Each structure stands twice: as C-alpha cells, then as structure tokens.
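Q: Got a minute? One more chain.
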Amino acid sequence: MVILVVVGGGEDSEDVAETITVAADMARVYEEELIALNVISNDEFLKEQQGKTSIADVRSEPIERYENEAAARAKTLVEGVLDDPTNVTYMGRVADPADGIVKVGQEVDARFIVIGARRKSPVGKAIFGSTTQSVLLSADRPVVTVMEE
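A: Always. Here it is, folded:
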C-alpha cells in the first residue's frame, strides 16, 4: 500500500507544503511509499489542443507528454518542501480531477489519499462543489483532508 498525496491544482505554495508535509509524515509513520499526484483537468488540457473538444479526439502522445509534465510539477513541488524526497514516486494524469484522484488511489491501492481543502461556507460548498468534496464522497478508501485557511 501507499500514501497518495494530491499536489498542484492552483494551491499556493504554503498550502501545498502543509499537505505534502502531512502526507510525508503519514508515510513515515505507516512505513508506506509516498506517491505525489498532479492532475491536469481535461478542460485545461483541451485548451492547449488546437480546437479539440474531446479527449477521445487527441492522440495518446500529447496526453502522455502532459502527464509527464504533471509528474514533473509534482516532483518540483515535493522537492521544494521535503528535505529528503528520495522515497517518493511522482505521477501525473489528464482527467477530471476528482475522478482521476479516485482512480489513481484505486490503481496504486492507496492506504490513504491526502488532499488539501479550502474552508468554504456551507452555501458555497452546495452551489460550487469542490474536487475535495467529490473525492470524499466517491473514494473507496480513507481520505485525509488538510484544511487551508
């Protein structure tokens, strides 16, 4: 099993640092591998694909390239926080963020998914939803949320 930490997605560096630190501490305590995941949304990806409107219309090479870039971003973020990131694996995905996180959690058999969460009013949560909320509701394994101010 592993600890899966979600990084990226527009978080500021202080917020992502706290999420990474919590996940690294959990990996150490549970003696599990740490996997850092950065998900690029389908919409963000398609904006760069010269008028394509569906992931199905895109050849696999650009998707693989973007996933590699997402993994590299995860690596940059983690290396900026941890003193010794040698036991970390980096992954990137192009997907709906919540679905991508849950799917990777299943693929790697994550013991925990660790994700940052912003404080929102109850009305804001009901109207706008959030990736964190969607992961909490659809994950088939424990999700640890690191609350951000």
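A: The first helix runs from residue 13 to 30.
Q: Perfect, thanks.
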